[in-house]
Design a protein that fits this description.
Blueprint (H helix, E strand, L loop, with lengths): L4 H13 L3 H16 L8 E3 L13 H9 L3 E8 L4 E6 L6 E3 L5 E3 L12 E5 L2 E2 L5 E2 L5 H8 L5 E5 L20 E3 L4 E3 L1
Length: 189
């Protein structure tokens, strides 16, 4: 089993690439069902990523339904590829969503939300280890974003696959997860 970020990134991109639409839907629903069991529902602001369908990311539609059913404030982001910063907006009925050049669905405009308001972040990833380290696409957007959140913000990774034992090349600046949820189980770090 590979253990470097580069090898793991490639390995899990390949595993995701062969998932069918129905497998993605089934696994995404199983993840949402596991989230229901978690002690995270007494908060107000929940940050959710909108999936890059072309990268076969987790379909967060089920989580969005869960959050709106619980009357939570839903926050989504827009990425600036020059600064590697994310700006956050409240998702409302009036929010217009448009894909950027990397096929990331993003809000066109809306009501800005400070990172200091965000209580729970659902984090996209390619792989994670038993210590709560994660591997994303390597651009550092989420590390920067998570580092700017308040210390008590709950960071929950979402993964189609189970953990690896260890990621070798973890950096100081890599922000660890509090939990990771897969279709099979909930990991707590």
């Amino acid at each position: 089993m590979p253990t470097s970020k580069k090898e793991l990134r490639l390995h899990y991109k390949n595993l995701r690439a062969v998932l069918s639409e129905s497998e993605i839907e089934e696994k995404s629903l199983a993840i949402a069902n596991n989230l229901i069991k978690m002690p995270i529902w007494d908060r107000t602001y929940y940050h959710v990523f909108l999936p890059i369908v072309e990268q076969k990311e987790i379909d967060t539609e089920f989580i969005l339904h869960l959050l709106s059913g619980k009357d939570k404030e839903i926050v989504i982001s827009k990425s600036d590829f020059e600064t590697r910063e994310m700006t956050h907006f409240l998702l409302t009925d009036n929010t217009k969503i448009k894909k950027n050049e990397y096929n990331i669905p993003e809000p066109v405009n809306g009501l800005p939300v400070s990172t200091q308001h965000i209580d729970v972040v659902f984090v996209p990833l390619l792989a994670f280890d038993i210590f709560g380290n994660r591997i994303g696409y390597g651009k550092g957007f989420y590390d920067k974003f998570l580092a700017s959140c308040k210390p008590e913000t709950i960071k929950i990774g979402l993964s189609f696959f189970e953990s690896v034992d260890q990621i070798d090349d973890v950096f100081e600046s890599d922000v660890k997860l509090d939990y990771c949820v897969t279709p099979e189980k909930i990991y707590q770090f």
